[in-house]
Amino acid sequence: MSQPRILVVDDEAVIRQAVKRILEQENYEVVTATSGHTALEKVQNNDFTVVISDLKMPGMGGMEVLKSIKILQPNVPVIIITGYATVETAVDAIKNGAFDYLPKPFNPQQVKQLVEKAIDHHRVNSDQTNTCNTSQDHHGFHRFIGDSKAMQKVYSRILQVAPTDSTVLITGESGTGKELVARAIHENSSRKDMPFVAIDCTALAESLLESELFGHEKGSFTGATHTKVGLFKVANGGTLFLDEISNISMSSQAKLLRVVQERVVTPLGGTKPQPIDIRLISATNKNLRDLSTEGTFREDLYFRLNTIPIDMPPLRDRSGDLPLLVNFFLRKFSDEISKEIKGVSPAVMNLLEEYDFPGNVRELEHMIERAVVLASEDMIQPVDLGLCDEEILARCGDASYVPSTTEELKEVKRRLREEAVIPIEKSFVLEALKRNDWNITRAAGEVGMLRPNFQALMKKLQVSARDRKLDS
Predict the structure, then answer these.
(1) Are strands 274-275 and 264-265 parallel, antiparallel or unpaired?
(2) What domains can you pick out in the chain, each with its CATH number?
(3) CA distance 441 to 452
């Protein structure tokens, strides 16, 4: 076993340093934290053998630290230091998962003996650690495709946090599937039969966002012709998911902080706070820690939201998952449009494996959908992907082919674009004509075009009466 690493959490420097000196004499590696929030940041980024935390600390107390660590590192024993060593305090700590408690004042021998017992406990539990897999027995996990180590870590964290009511912050690039994580947490929680309410914080202006979240009273502002129930109340008893939380204004952040802290919400124009019972999950593709340092995101709100973090890996870091995702999306879209596609060509797979996927799984999904629609064979070819930039063109079709001149590059781009767009446009025109029994005036009106413009599009796509005969 590697050298035990002990985390000591106490806002009092005297206690913190005393425990550190005692344990370092036993050749343990000791890390200290001055607050509960700092401790959780360290736990998120490091593995510990034992955590020793004071019970009474400003901001986040020892009991909150304990509950969070039992999710982040469930096998790590937590010892609670308390100057309030009543039986009731000890029982509460043990009920919440504490290994033991250490009453003040304590002597070095007490600390050494208790830590030694905790290390032995950690060693036994670590040998019995259960790893999570992608079993369909877990609700919501069928939406995830991937067996990579990076995703196994996500699955494990979901199952750790789901049974609790802890606030969760999901981070990751756009398109990685952050809402899927939120839904899986909800569906594996005791709130699964209650509402799951999601809102994209970028989709609404500040005034509308606050009205949506908190609700408003009739007449509270111009246009408020009736009382509106906010999403916090709609989600009561269930889970509220705030996507792209970094985009809310400082004013809205202050109001949100009060809701998170006090679990009450006051509608716009109202005076009476209303109690709520929700599980709050947030998501962002930005670094909230950096934003709080810059002064554009409240640090106190960040700490409240980041109780339990889950980081969604980008597709480029999910080694081995790409073929699984490609095959899943191929089956999905082939079934949807009743088109038999056997697979992708080796050239396509090579192309996909070299591509960085800035849009992650969402971009891959759209790419495969487009390829299935455009494919003229039963195997997806590079041209079906519709990728037209220079980097991709250099690997399209024949892997050794690279356009040698600007004009040649433009011609290849034009051909790829034409092959990608024209079948869609032609299908659009033909379907409109079929629905209207080939009456051009009615077809043009249905799709919102003037008859001359619709006829010009028919001419460009070479759609004529011949197609009607073929259709019949």
Answers:
(1) antiparallel
(2) 5-127 (3.40.50.2300), 141-313 (3.40.50.300), 318-396 (1.10.8.60), 403-472 (1.10.10)
(3) 9
Closest residue by Cα to residue 355 from 334, 333, 382: 382
The DSSP output letter for 384 is G
Give pLDDT tens digits for 374-386: 888 888 888 788 7
Amino acid at 354: E
Please calculate the CA angle 141-143-147 and round it to the nearest 5 degrees: 65
Residue 4 in contact with residue 50, Cβ under 8 Å?
yes
As a whole-number percent, the residues of the chain with pLDDT over 90 amount to 39
Question: Which residue, among 115, 113, 116, 149, has the nearest Cα to 134 in the 3D structure?
Answer: 149
C-alpha–C-alpha distance, residues 421 and 363, integer Å: 18
Query: What's the average model confidence in pLDDT over 230-247?
Result: 93
> Mean pLDDT over all residues of the chain?
82
Number of H helices, E strands in the chain: 20, 16
User: Tell me: the pLDDT tens digits for 22-40?
Assistant: 999 999 999 999 999 899 8
